[in-house]
DNA sequence: GCAGACCGGAACGATCCGTTCCACTGTTAG
DNA sequence: CTAACAGTGGAACGGATCGTTCCGGTCTGC
């Protein structure tokens, strides 16, 4: 037993293990393109049958939840990585660039509400918020972030970038980077700027995604 | 004949005429909230039966098209009104504020693709682009708009604002205004700004909405 | 007072999609 | 070598949704 031929792609077991990844990858691509896509589309994209999906996930909701949780974890990982960066403003900058490039936000936002979140997700979401707030604090400390920007503005910013969409995925990435650059410039300190209008976004105002969805 | 009682709200005719508006208003509200809402939802919101809808529109697609065309006309009207403003930068500013407040973009973007556009809409879309380009030109002339911003950036900007969404519509409006303020600050001229990355959005890159939608 | 505009809403038919089920295949344990 | 079986493809099912049609009823305008 145990890897009879040492080759990495032998046997049914290995094939199955590889399918694990293929399916997740396909699901990510498909649901990123259309959050309401049928499950069959995922199977087709992955080049497997529907059974291969149902063997791994209890149902569509289960798959969606896992996918979304992965996105959340990625977000946290990027935040932690950015916090290791010594320069405050660079950390802030780098973090946003990474998150936008990884398209984490689309997953999180467009999929939230299509499943009932686990408690662990709730905890992770809290941690994500804390990390983001820490990055914003440091950005404020650097003096490069305009004083009336708040942590929740990150949500707005990421949503804005995720909204950019053209048929070609690569081009989409470029345009999102452009959008991000504009937004970052808008959030930067300038001498004679008018203050941002209206009450700033509050803490709970974006968590509604993690709860209902009538 | 002709208005036997001079009152504004008498008779079946008047009721019918009023329904015209009520239905359009309901349709706007419903499809703004969910572009894939069933037609029955519009009828319910309007407080009328389904027949009242089908008496006025050949089908769902017809209603959607009309709704979207109205949005386009509103966009054009706002652009023309803004062009009458003497100060270049103020015109640019005012125009965007109005369009964001009127939520024109949501209609246009989320509904496009759900119907086959008429030729007149194609012409109107062209005119809209010309007017927007004129506003951008004037904004450039004022020296307040950063030189590497192009007309197509308006599309990106409006999309970003429309992406902001919370349950309460009024609050949504406030947050969009905030978003707009950040974006405008980002598009404003500042002395030592880094140039915007990547190739700028090109002319045809957003017209794909007006064509297919597999 | 009657023809018909106008309307409400039930009913229909088509479509779509999540899930189940079963036959099949190559693998692995003994 | 072979009997079990994990793993799979994909057809089929049942439920839900939704656009559209249709019919019976009501009130107006002449």
From TrEMBL, chains A, B:
PROSITE patterns: HTH_TETR_2. Residues 17-75 form the HTH tetR-type domain. Keywords: DNA-binding, Transcription, Transcription regulation. Residues 38-57 bind DNA. It comes from the Bacteria. This is TetR/AcrR family transcriptional regulator. It comes from Micromonospora parastrephiae.
């Amino acid at each position: 037993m145990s890897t009879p031929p040492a080759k990495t792609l032998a046997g049914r077991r290995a094939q199955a293990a590889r399918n694990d990844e293929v399916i997740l990858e396909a699901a990510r691509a498909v649901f990123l393109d259309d959050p309401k896509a049928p499950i069959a589309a995922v199977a087709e994209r992955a080049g497997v049958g529907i059974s291969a999906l149902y063997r791994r996930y209890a149902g569509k909701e289960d798959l969606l939840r896992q996918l979304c949780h992965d996105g959340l974890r990625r977000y946290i990982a990027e935040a932690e990585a950015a916090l290791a960066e010594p320069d405050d403003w660079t950390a802030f900058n780098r973090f946003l660039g990474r998150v936008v490039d990884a398209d984490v936000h689309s997953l999180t936002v467009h999929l939230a509400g299509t499943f009932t979140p686990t408690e662990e997700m709730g905890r992770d979401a809290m941690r994500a918020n804390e990390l983001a707030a820490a990055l914003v604090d440091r950005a404020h400390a650097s003096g490069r972030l305009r004083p009336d920007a708040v942590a929740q503005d990150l949500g707005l910013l990421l949503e804005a970038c995720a909204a950019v969409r053209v048929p070609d995925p690569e081009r989409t990435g470029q345009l999102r980077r452009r959008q991000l650059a504009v937004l970052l410039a808008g959030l930067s300190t300038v001498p004679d700027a008018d203050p941002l209008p209206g009450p700033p976004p509050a803490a709970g105002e974006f968590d509604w995604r993690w709860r209902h969805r009538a």
